[in-house]
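User: Predict structure, ligand glyceraldehyde-3-phosphate.
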Amino acid sequence: GLSNTKEMLLKANREGYSVPAFNFNNLEQLQAIIEACVEMGAPVILQVSPGARNYIGKDMIPFMAKAATSYVAASGSDIPVALHLDHGPSFEIAEDCILNSGFSSVMIDASKYDYDENVALSKKVAEFAHQYDVTVEAELGVLAGVEDEVSAEEHIFTKPSEVEDFVSKTGVDSLAIAIGTSHGAFKFKPTDDPHIRLDILKQIEEKIPGFPIVLHGSSSIPQQYVRIINENGGKIEDALGIPDKQLHEASKSAVAKINVDSDGRLAFTAGVRKAFMDNPAEFDPRKYLAKGKEFMKKYYKEKIVDVYGAEGA
Ligand code: G3H
Ligand code: 13P
Ligand code: NA
Ligand code: ZN
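Assistant: Predicted complex:
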């Protein structure tokens, strides 16, 4: 069955790694994620954004999660698997995911509200979720780029002075912070020095020692996938992400969960585009989707080692 993220995240911090939190949107992506994590012996948080929830259909989601945990058990693996709502926009959606879709963990993203409203809504979700043994992630600070349909021009870094008050008032189980990451494939300009503010992370950690911290917007935007996409009829320009080395550093700290979505999309697209170009006469979706799945699975396996340090955890 599914696990909540409580022990997963605490264990990651005790042992100096972080837990892969991969967004999924369809069967092939879920297969790639779960096969990669089983083969690497890594715990996994399967994340569903509100957009993914609409795309998959909310009634189908618990059965996809069930398929994933059944696959793990049938493989003889004992990796913990969580089903997590990513960027939950309201109490009502978090409640529906908990009561009707079997989620073991939810994020309430009230980072767009002012501090007191963020505290109040995050606390309300935490109190409700904990009755069902469901863990809760909340967010302080605002990531640049598009987040929850709100777009911020500038990063609003999490203030280290607020985190202790926030986690004690809300009772949440983990805290997403903004330290220079952003969602999507265009995190930096070609003229930037791509980096995250590990100095702010350190200040945050000192305020809430050992408390599980979450990084969003952490795709590394591997250039080989951008190149394959562009060599096979695509056109993606100036896509840049977070260097793996910095995320690996963060994994050794109190960062216990790192979210990746865009990289999976790039790997999938690269595989499918290549399959189409290599075999123009092919029209069996199983053939080209298998190539997309193969690219994603290879990516997830590499990332588990290079970023999370979660292999054999
Ligand atoms: O945080 C954003 C995630 O990558 C989800 O993206 O809303 O397009 O599913 P989405
Ligand atoms: P990326 O767009 O960097 O993959 O971030 C994903 C994320 O934060 C999901 O919540
Ligand atoms: Na960690
Ligand atoms: Zn996110």
